[in-house]
Amino acid sequence: MLVACGIAFWKISSTKHSAGDAGREMATSSVQAGAPSPAPAQSAMPSAEMKTTSLFGPTVPNPGPPPVNIPKGMAWIPGGEFSMGAADPPDKDEVGMKATEDSRPVHRVYVDGFFMDKTDVTNAEFAKFVKATGYVTVAERKPKAEDFPGAPPENLVAGSVVFAPPDHPVPLNDHMQWWSYVHGANWRHPLGPGSSIQGKDNFPVVQIAYEDAQAYAKWAGKRLPTEAEWEFTARGGLAGKPFVWGDEFRPNGKWMANTHQGNFPNQDTGADGYPGIAPVAEFPPNGYGLYDMAGNVWQWTSDWYRADYYKTIANGVTRNPKGPESSYDPSEPTEPKKAHRGGSFLCTDQYCSRYIVGTRGKGEVSTGTNHLGFRCVEDVKTAAKAS
């Protein structure tokens, strides 16, 4: 996934940003010549003191039986200690190696037990929330002139960012060729006014900004997962594997996630059964019974995104980390961004291999896209009070 936030801002304000500014990467790594290297965090330790090991230790889940009452639609995640970070892709190709850059070094982390939604939040679930609360998502709100100084009034129209592939092969050095800000695009109309979610109750809700996901989670008595919680869950008890399901991308020739097949970005053949987005739970669950922890749609986490965050973590075991105190993306240093996880139906080894477990994405907090959704977690104490 690419720069949606820059595209949205540029399309609205137009007089302030150039196409080049708009084309900065938002949510995954892509292979681009001359891409800037991350600036070191101010709190980073000297290189000699950094933990540089890339070895994965075992995943050690907390002992004991699961709670008696597990909330409907959720799975019990025991928590415990594990190695967090990305392994090398099996063939160590350039795109895959690029995808792991901000996920090193591998480090030990402990998380407490919690519950997590088995699937991404669906259109039907989000519709119940909107009906109950009258909530209006960011993409449905008209942009304010004060937020886009100098923007032509005709550009201040509600909308969001949509993947719009060209009808022919193109060089992969300008993602403005396949992303566009579309007036009228929102969760009800993911691709724009002519699209609909009718008959798609069981598809993941998309075009969701960070505050939209937060609002739903609060209404549901839940919260968004931290990156550490999300990765512990995604691994499903495995340690050091490149994929949520193990060592091979297609074990015994079987598709394990909804990703992109064909020539990127202009052709998705749908060899995995789905050209574009798929309903939830169409591919096998992982070891903890969670679906779509790789591919289909990206998922928001609660952590701020910093490209150099892992380099600031000391040796030893970090307990229940909540991420850095602030955001920093060297390609867009002034934009506040939260971390995404999981990759999407656009991930491919031609351009983005973020279906590799442990890899990270990022997104400006007020921007959604048609391949970005979320799922929630719930603490044990919260669930006990609710019951």
Features:
single chain, 387 residues, alpha+beta, paralog of FGE (formylglycine-generating enzyme), 4-stranded mixed sheet, 7 helices, 13 strands, 15% helix, disordered N terminus
In words, what does this structure look like?
By secondary structure, the chain is α+β, with helices and mostly antiparallel strands. It has a domain at 77-140 and 197-386: paralog of FGE (formylglycine-generating enzyme), CATH 3.90.1580. It contains 7 helices and 13 strands. The protein has helices spanning 4-13, 19-22, 94-99, 123-133, 210-219, 227-235, 380-386; strands spanning 60-61, 74-77, 80-84, 107-111, 114-117, 159-163, 179-183, 298-304, 317-319, 337-341, 361-364, 372-373, 377-378. The strands form 4 sheets. It has a 4-stranded mixed β-sheet with strand order 1-3-4-9, covered by helices on one side. Strands 11-10-8-12 form a 4-stranded mixed β-sheet. It is globular. The relative contact order is 0.23.
